[in-house]
Amino acid sequence: MQEIHIAGTGVWYPEDVITNDEIVSSYNAYVDNFNESNKDSIASGDIIALEHSSVEFIEKASGIKTRHVVDKKNILDVERMMPSLKHEDESRLSIQAVAGIHAAKKAMTQANVTPDDIDAVILGTSHNARYYPAVAIEIQNELGIDGYAYDMLVGCSSTTFAINNAYSDIASGLAETILVVNPEISTPAVNFGKRDIHFIFGDGCVASVIKKNSSSEKSFKILDRKLMTQFSNNIRSDWSYLARTASDYKTAEDLIFNQNGGSVFKEVCPLVAKFISTQLEKNNIKVEDISKFWLHQANARMINLIVSKIIGSDDFDTNLAPLPIESFGNLASAGSMFAFNLNNDLKSGEKGIICSFGAGYSVCSIIVEKV
Ligand code: CO8
Fold this sequence. Notes:
Peroxisomal Thiolase, Chain A, domain 1; nine-stranded mixed beta sheet; two-stranded antiparallel sheet; binds octanoyl-coenzyme A
């Protein structure tokens, strides 16, 4: 009988780490500079003074303690407040390809496969590094993989939707083994001068090998997939090739990542809890039979609230729903599979749920069972 497995996963993250103390000190120095430079306009009421951020707020509101980033020095530099990167061009590998290749090699080792075994590469991410050629094809070329490769964007659900595509291609007979790569280099899209989002994101990448009838000891069988989207402007980025032609003016900060975090929290938590509960019912799986919830790492409070709604109690072992967000921040779409990679020591027959949710809105939940 044909089974389709997550045969192996691998992660990559940059060495630079920023603590909450460091991000808050930098932000508060930026605020002090801004308020001093604009003191007359602030006094006349033309500009609203910026307020300080706080470590206590960040830990309580999000659970984040540190984040790994591609360029700590320039993010913390109050005169810059963003990473310093080079333009993407043909003289070097894309930043997403570099991250993706590191994670992919680990995933292939864990899955006991070589590039010769792979039929396709699907790259899912929240932000394209460029429009074309696809970074997935660049990775395919660097690793020496035959077959096809493409990039796809589904905001925070890009990783799980990409795994879903891989499953469908394998189930239809188009491929037998697919490498899914999910680089999330998010800090270039963060306005580090904005109090309600300056602390949220980190950079990282996860890769997964999806394979028909895998024999690797790390294999998880995919039992069920469920997807939904529902339009919302609460998480939005308008950064695009159209921007250079626009006749109205917007700054880069207007165009990059913006969110109404409170609304996202209120709307998405009940939606995801119901989505997963309904999926379990449909599959005749009792919630007590779920040993692990690998959820999108947007906010630790959000994860705990969703799990408590599903299991009907807020008294549960923290190991039930891993929280790599504490060390890595929000890794956009890579978060749920990153959690899976770091904490998946299940026994044969035990089940878990991988679920992403966020921009779009988009939700994808995958029930898996340890082989
Ligand atoms: N320090 C101190 N106080 C602050 C700060 C701060 N840094 N920020 C806000 N406050 C204050 C506010 O001013 C407010 O004060 P008051 O009550 O006086 O008005 C108070 O704190 C409470 O503010 P909020 O209601 O906004 O705070 P919350 O408790 O809601 O927490 C969060 C804010 C952490 C943003 C929370 O709302 C959250 O996590 N929401 C969910 C967000 C979410 O899931 N977003 C999806 C993320 S998108 C994604 O995962 C992928 C997208 C693509 C990648 C993008 C890459 C860049």
